[in-house]
Amino acid sequence: MDLYLLSLVIYVSSCFFYIHAGAQEIGVNYGLLGNNLPPPDSVINLLKSRNIQKGTPASIFRYISAGNEVILGPLAHFVIGAMKNLDTALKAANLHIPVSTAIHFQAIGQSFPPSNGAFSEVSVNILTPIIAFLESREFPLLVNVYPYFAYIGLGDPKSMKLEYALGNAGGGVVSDGVLQYNNLFDAIIDTVYSAIEKVGGKSVRVVVLETGWPTAENGEITTVGNAQAYVNNVIARIKSQSGTPKRPRSTTEMYIFALFNENLKPPGTEQNFGLYQPDMTEEFIMINLLKSRNIQKVRIFDPNPGVLRALGDTGMEVVIGVRNKDLEQLAANSSSAIQWVHTNVVPYVPAAIFRYISAGNEVILGPLAHFVIGAMKNLDTALKAANLHIPVSTAIHFQAIGQSFPPSNGAFSEVSVNILTPIITFHFYFLKYKSKVTRSGIEKKSNFLLPYSSGHNEFISRICVQAQIKIDPFQVVGFFSLLCWSFERFPVLSGKEKNTNARTQGEAKFLTMNQFA
């Protein structure tokens, strides 16, 4: 989204950044309930990088919220007094800053249809004087609007389509007299407006102080894809300046919750509303860029949780790297490999599609080289134990090649051959034939083709693999930096020992194999 003006709402444990583009009002919550969050200066630089421009004067105080969601709790009766005293103090300081309070939708007792909206018996006595104060001062009521919680609170998911809660097309239409609702966001806001009017606040405006959708911890409902859809949809609603069915000429001011995932919030979905991870990696904005460029595969060099969550339900394949420094532990201890798989892979499937796991990057010529094969084997075993069929390999540099010209003479260097021989052997022994060879040709079951030479007993393969790019004529897809070898260098790979039966099953000139079991 384009961010134009930075403003601040004073609020316990949170800051709110305000964006104004013409009459469009969109902001984001900067929550501070985390012990791993970046320093404020870094956050401000992040916001500036998203085109937020400095306001004048240096800080613009948009609102002061006297508490957050306290109306149904033991502190509720203190709110109106705090609001009045703060307003008096601000006037004395010649400051014109609206004072309000933030309420949860649970303060609503009657919610359907929206025109019947009314505060609950518990909250109405608290909120009536608050609404009267806001009406007299022309201040808004701050409301935290979460269609997600309304949706899961129904108990029976069939009573409402998820698409309606997300604001997607195809969610259906809910009629309330002559008013038509095609999304839950608008319905909630108009329900609050109806409740406000019933206690005498006809001119009180609703500001959506918090709204968002969690990215994890509740199965298929809380995916990055759903969070992305919801945020994009509500932003589009605000930018359209169409208001709500009940108040079509009233522009809604809205703050997305939240800037970061916050690990000191209650466990579960509450910790997973962030647009960014604490390391300032984006949950789904960068993924949008990749998808807009029709990129179908992406490689990451370490298992970044934010990126993996963002890749969920995108259909994009990911090559995930094991950090070089982790190879020794993974090779030495199978339990470490199990933990790595259960930390970095299991939580993200099936939403994320893992293409390969790379045990290290370009370490074959270095001091960590002898840990690679052990790490690969332990990871493969751990993946199989988790019933995950993800190929494990390693990424090598072309410097591992000792003889490179002509390509048919390709051979690993003396330094690398002892390391790579067991790695290549590991690859081969985990191959399975996934094709049906017939006289008419081959039924392709994988994307890894090795040319078969009918005049020889060996597989003679020159494989050039670079950055997941399909290379003709062998149609090889992979992720090594660059690798060329001849299989005849390794007698164990000879067609003589392994492929006599396959060769007699037909006249196919190519043998298709899945790279791993």
Automatic annotation (TrEMBL):
<dbReference type="Pfam" id="PF00332">
    <property type="entry name" value="Glyco_hydro_17"/>
</dbReference>
<keyword id="KW-0378">Hydrolase</keyword>
<dbReference type="InterPro" id="IPR000490">
    <property type="entry name" value="Glyco_hydro_17"/>
</dbReference>
<protein>
    <recommendedName>
        <fullName>glucan endo-1,3-beta-D-glucosidase</fullName>
        <ecNumber>3.2.1.39</ecNumber>
    </recommendedName>
</protein>
<dbReference type="InterPro" id="IPR017853">
    <property type="entry name" value="GH"/>
</dbReference>
<dbReference type="GO" id="GO:0005975">
    <property type="term" value="P:carbohydrate metabolic process"/>
</dbReference>
<keyword id="KW-0732">Signal</keyword>
<comment type="similarity">
    <text>Belongs to the glycosyl hydrolase 17 family.</text>
</comment>
<dbReference type="GO" id="GO:0042973">
    <property type="term" value="F:glucan endo-1,3-beta-D-glucosidase activity"/>
</dbReference>
<keyword id="KW-0326">Glycosidase</keyword>
<feature type="signal peptide">
    <location>
        <begin position="1"/>
        <end position="23"/>
    </location>
</feature>
<dbReference type="InterPro" id="IPR044965">
    <property type="entry name" value="Glyco_hydro_17_plant"/>
</dbReference>
